Predict the 3D structure of the following.
Amino acid sequence: MDPELEAFIALFPPARLDDPVVERANLAALAASVPKPDTSGMTVEDRTVPGDPDVAIRIYRPHEAQGAIIWLHGGGWVMGDLDTEHPWAARLAEGSGAVVISVDYRLAPENPFPAALDDVYTVLNWAAGNAAELGVTPDRIAIGGHSAGGGLAAAATLRTRDEQGPPIHFQLLNQPGLDDRQETWSARTFTDTPWVNRDKVAAMWRHYLSGGPAPSPYAAPARATDLSGLPPAYVATAEFCPNRDEDIDYAVRLMRSGVSVELHQWPGTFHGSQAILSAEVSRLQLAELGGALRRALAA
């Protein structure tokens, strides 16, 4: 493991998800300890997207923004909100020069699948219909997220393709949760990795899917048999992450389906370790996310 990251392992909360309410408070405390992002080069605005139900969003508008991204926070579908994602959404906007639309989707287990995906789809349709107000064109809207949010982003691209919904220019998938079956080598083997391990992943899926298997690829995108016609993708994985192998498999399957993919496996890292901003590799990870999005929206 990267020695700068290893030094912080003892400070991370235990990797479990037995009580979502307690873990939400722990994540909020952890996010509050992150150094504040610099938002002087952008405007930040909270909005509500009308829907059934309405969806709260936070919009980060850099000056002279190029394109936009629907950005979905991590937290295993059971944790996270606009405030816990603020340090990362703002840094993504700064690093990419894109309008970042952070989505406060509904959380499980109170709202299991497909509630979160429905919220994401509501915001995606709103963004496409209000592109001019956002200062972008409808053909320059991407979608992305970290962990569970990355899984939701991948699911949204599948749904948009199948339902001929708003065009998605690019998908930015950082350590996404894609496969509820947990049959890959990394999913079976990483039982004691920091922050996220096999048991915690199992609990995430259990809360999100109400204890059963994924009913469709919209719940677990790795179950999709046809990945053709999807937008170009950037997929990032962490070496010591249970999701690692399912993410690499998904990226390779996208390529075999004719989708342009950039795949970056970060050695010495673990799931979510990009939050340790004092580590050089973490700063590189965040810079790469912003750079990949900037390149995609400029293409």
Notes: The two ends are 35 Å apart (CA to CA). The chain has one domain: 3-298. DSSP finds ten helices and eight strands in the chain.
